[in-house]
């Protein structure tokens, strides 16, 4: 039996072996020329090439575009205008009142995105934490519930948007329930408040499984002995949570915060499918603004879109650095 | 304060019975050691007393109060865990005071208790450090300190020295003994280390497969083991056993030696390696052939075998000149013989 398995294994890996053998002379030559240290560069090269082509070059191009003006998409046909696009975006009478800004839609999107991030990330962390705490308990059907909460993560954001649009539309499932309960139907997605709340709720539902998983892993890494020591110390459950669970979950929480924050700022697909940015501009988020200005509007302005995306990128970098700093501090706090 | 009584304690995990009806009384201020091989249920029994697990049936009393269904927090006990279980994100001071803060004790009293425990355990300079900045021995002290500050009815110690190296274990063992003498509080100590059990205990509880085999003082366990298991488990190296038949009040050992026994039928004769010596010419003795000699300086361990008896271990004083392959005769005194019947129970 073992011999049979060995043969099957050999046949299955034959293509890989042949490819490896084909590369062998090249690798030998490279190693002879560069030494063992050069091999590190050789193996990193494919990944770095992909990173360069799909991240670094577009990033540089994006920055170059942000220094140009006009509606032409080809860089050669565009005129260099320096930091004019940034000036246009940042020109504002009162940043808290988008209508006083030259690019009022940009500032509306900034305001909407900021509010979205504030509420969605808070909600996401709370809901994920509560779910992780429940799933960490020895409840019946724990495996089933873990799958249920993780399942939406596997769905495409567009599918998520479509499902919830169907649920929340005028003749959707939600209104069926509402009317059966004896209330008047609500036009959920045409109401500024409900549409914004729906965008928050839907994106939380779609992604919370992932964050729950990170927190669950953190909870399971906390030694059981510590809880038993706390039990011997007559620690009330709330104090166990605040003084033991939460501090020890610090590094995982920081990861969740960073990721949720980045995803929150980048919110686009499910919200776009769900509300299309409406009603009015009540759910217009930054990424949608960039997409519409750069590609979808009649008078497209790739330079302005590029400048907006650079500004958004800078905000993301700053947020990430802050969160990473907090995460390292939390980690040091736990291990020192 | 600190009397603990167990009555018919049973514990099952699903269909697996782990503890099979334990009755035990632990006196005030006594240091009792639970000892036994891995899986014998000693840690489970300790957790049942602590209240971290609930018995399937039976009763646990502390100072005459039934605490069987009470939680760990309500039993007034303190536990030192094998892993120390120190809160890694708190300083030593915070670790020590955490339990007292839960009891809403005034800050001044908390500080006083922490300082006192720190002085007692010589960890005063470590109060601002975190557990990961401490050595194994220091962590152990902090874990003990955390138990001491609570001024408990009894201390429960679950293999507290097992993570330390041999030298530190020796030092900490002595310190624990001194601490018990100073505090005079009841202690229940779980270990698989015989030396810890023998040196620390007022009484030792030998457990096997969830049952008590014998409860006695360390020397009584060594001198008068009540059954074959205890005889083989207590004492290092292990006791030599000779399976033989008692007829007409006598049992024959390999090499023609005989022992007088008031018993008839199959018996197992046990003699500790330390109780065998090289025989004089005319002396009654067991004949054996030497396979290995381990000269340890103060004593010499001789591995030999006797016809029909398998291997025999002998610990001889000093450095006798014995070579591998030599034929030796091993003598013994009657008062050092342990005899067990076919059921493994002590005879006489």
What count of helical segments of chain A does DSSP give? 13
Fraction in helix of chain A: over 70%
Largest sheet of chain B: 6 strands, mixed
Number of extended strands of chain A: 2
* Largest beta sheet: strand ordering of chain A: 1-2
> Could you tell me which chain pair has the largest interface and how many residues each side has?
A-B, 22 and 26 residues
Number of domains of chain B: 2
| Beta content of chain A | under 5%
The pLDDT mean of chain A sits at: 90
Architecture of the largest domain in chain B, CATH level 2?
A: 3-Layer(aba) Sandwich
Top keywords for this entry?
heterodimer; A: mainly alpha; two-stranded antiparallel sheet; 2 strands; 1% strand; globular; B: 348 residues; alpha+beta; OB fold (Dihydrolipoamide Acetyltransferase, E2P); six-stranded mixed β-sheet; five-stranded antiparallel β-sheet; elongated
Secondary structure topology:
The complex is a heterodimer of chains A (336) and B (348).
Chain A: H1 2-66, E1 68-69, E2 79-80, H2 84-90, H3 104-135, H4 142-154, H5 157-168, H6 173-180, H7 192-221, H8 224-232, H9 237-248, H10 250-265, H11 269-275, H12 286-296, H13 302-335
Antiparallel strand pairs in A: 1-2
Helix pairs in contact in A: 1-13, 2-13, 3-7, 3-10, 3-12, 4-7, 5-11, 7-10, 7-11, 10-13, 12-13
Chain B: E1 4-13, E2 16-26, E3 31-35, H1 42-50, E4 57-62, E5 65-66, E6 77-80, H2 92-102, H3 107-121, H4 136-148, E7 154-158, H5 166-183, E8 186-191, H6 194-200, E9 203-208, E10 211-216, H7 218-223, H8 228-233, E11 240-247, E12 250-252, E13 258-260, E14 265-271, E15 277-278, E16 286-295, E17 299-306, E18 310-317, E19 327-331, E20 338-340
Parallel strand pairs in B: 3-8, 3-9, 6-7, 7-8
Antiparallel strand pairs in B: 1-2, 1-4, 4-5, 9-10, 11-12, 11-14, 12-13, 14-20, 15-19, 16-17, 16-19, 17-18
